[in-house]
Amino acid sequence: MTPFTTLRAVAAPMAEANIDTDQILPKQFLATTERSGLARGLFADQRFNPDGRENPDFVLNRAPFRGAQILIAGDNFGCGSSREHAPWALLDFGVRCIVAPSFAEIFYNNCINNGILPAIADPAICTELGAEADGGEFTVDLSSQTIVTPAGEQFGFTIEAGRKAKLLAGADDITLTLLRTDEIAAFERRRVVWL
Amino acid sequence: MSGRTLYDKIWEAHLVAVEDDGAALLYVDLHLVYEVMSPQAFAGLRAAGRRVRRPELTLAVCDHNTPTENQRAGVSAIADASARRQVETMLVNARDFGVEIFPMGDPRNGIVHVVGPEQGRTQPGMVIVCGDSHTSTHGAFGALAFGIGTSEVEHVLATQTLRARKAKNMLVQFHGAPPIGAGAKDMALALIGQIGSGGGAGHVIEYAGEAVRNLSMEGRLTLCNLTIENGARAGMVAPDEQTLAYLKGRPGAPKQGWVDASSFWRTLRSDADARWDTVVDVDCTTLAPLVTWGTNPEQVGPISAAIPDPASFADPVKQASARRALDYMGLTPGQKLEGLAIDRVFIGSCANGRIEDLRQAASIAKGRKVAPHVRAMVVPGSGQVRAQAEAEGLDRVFTAAGFEWREPGCSMCLGMNPDKALSGERVASTSNRNFEGRQGRGARTHLMSPAMAALAAIEGKLADLRRLGR
Asked: Considering all CA atoms of chain B, what is the largest pairwise distance in Å, rounded to the nearest integer?
């Protein structure tokens, strides 16, 4: 997994609450056996009209935000379906960081497992960041847990220490857990099984 | 020291290790997999040369993108090439990694959250995971059950454990008995309406109170199924005699170990002095049949209500969300829900595709006819549900009334298979999500109970079940 340390990039404002994973990656893109190539499906029902042409009103189709790698989002971002295809599509599009007042939990874990930083910030800070998302570059620094706006204002965000360390290191959970195989085996020996 | 909740007890009983960073390594008793969320996980195992640690604790089904007709023809019945490839890949992965699978067309196959309980695989006190958010369903048996992502699926396959962080404890007490016309689905929607789509965030919920005790196992499954729609990690109901009676004799239930197992299960409850981080009370005595009017499940109201004016919400975010929802749904403030013409009806899903749901719908459909402009589908949650319904003659009740009687699967709940609604079509649906595009691009979903959906099919419009005196 690619470590996350710092990111300097354009941020796109997406302030609605409860943006669900069906919106982030609609179901017609789930029938794949791959993790890659999902960028074309990202927000597809909003990015593209039914005839396949771009919807010029959608934020990621507007000039400064086409290359956005940061989303400034609303409450409960990523709610609904557990589909990891949603963060895969974000990553494939180039998004490496989402700032929101809160995230749905499965989506949050899925982001961490794919090297995407889900930064939690106060609602007032998110509103401020959204207002300053004018196409200029933001700087996100994970180790200091700060976001600096294009105008140079600095804000803090929260992330739990274990997940921060994992993102910074780009650590792979399975490799770490397999180091504990003896403990898993010991648990299995004392586990009660009814026949 | 204060007492422990049921969640605390199950959590502690499954701790393999605790990492320095506070992450727990939790042992998984049952891992359910299916075709859509698992192929990348098995591919990851292959690439790393890993095996499935405990294939016998893993069960695979095919449900999300399987068609609901002509399943006997096998994989070739799947018209869409990429969906077919996923189902074929599931079969190959199950074979190569030694995982038991109920393939499409097998009488035991069906929606993963219907199959687990009815096969007796879902048991009290277990930790159950699946790459599907509605895994919360299995909490109805007093199990800790929750959805995970595909990377976590791979982790569980490789290690039989999951890295997890302890959630807070929430007690939701449903007081009193719901009036005629309201039931488990209305209880679940009422809670979401009360606390919001994110109201349960960070918590595991235990559902308690008279109204929960009086629910059948099917009703408890419905209630726990919709837990994820309030944002909680999992929802559970402490096991009781009803839970045990449901389980006894099922294929996966203990046999010679039954006495030991059932006496242990009887001890699984929260202590009287357990500490709750959050307590929510829901009054069931005034519950009405509920219908969603928006594009997330908290946008819900009684069938007798009018569509709210977005300006009536104090929170500007909720105002904006309501405005967008009404635009998508083609509704205007002040319009009555009752009488709203519908185009499609879907009765099924992991929320409401079990035998009791079909019995309730059939009791409304019996001797009546689906309105001529409505296309109505009944999709049993599993092959077993379908067989049971046919043994009771429910299929004939539905087909005589003009409903389509389909083969099991997720069907129109998520529009990943041929069962989809068209853009602009208004759907009365017993599923659990009314998100934009969920049942088909531009489709307008109204969530409700099976009896309410059946009545909508007959009337051709949203109708109040209470007018039938039930």
From this structure: 64
Question: A32 at the B interface (CB within 8 A)?
Answer: yes
Q: Does B251 touch chain A (CB under 8 A)?
A: no
With tokens 């699926």, the residue in question is B153
Q: Is B424 left (phi over 0), alpha (psi -120 to 50) or beta?
A: left
Pair type for strands B290-292 and B300-302? antiparallel
Q: Which of A90-94, A172-176, B155-159, B278-282 has the lowest mean pLDDT?
A: A172-176
Tens digit of pLDDT for each residue in B363-413? 999 999 999 999 999 999 999 999 999 999 999 999 999 999 999 999 999
Contact B450, B432 (CB under 8 A): no
Q: Are A99 and A121 in contact (CB under 8 A)?
A: yes
Q: Is the CB of residue A73 less than 8 Å from the CB of residue A15? A: yes
d(CA B85, CA B76): 10
Q: Exposure pattern of B56-76 as b/e (b: 16+ CB <10 Å)?
A: ebbbbbbbbbbbbeebeeebe
Listed residue (B330, B336, B306) closest to B425, CA to CA: B330
Q: Are B61 and B102 in contact (CB under 8 A)?
A: yes
Does the CB of B258 have a partner CB in chain A at under 8 Å? yes
Gap between the Cα atoms of A189 and A191, Å rounded: 6
Q: Is the ipTM of this complex over 0.85?
A: yes
A-contacting residues of B 393-412, CB under 8 Å?
none
Q: In terms of pTM, does the model score above 0.90? A: yes
Q: Which amino acid is present at B140?
A: A
Residues B197, A76: C-beta atoms closer than 8 Å: yes
Distance CA B167, CA A4 (A): 26
Of B150, B198, B437, the CB nearest to A45: B437
Say if the Cβ atoms of B233 and A30 lie within 8 Å.
no
Structure tokens at A194: 């009814």
Residue A113 has its nearest CB partner, among B85, B131, B152, at B152
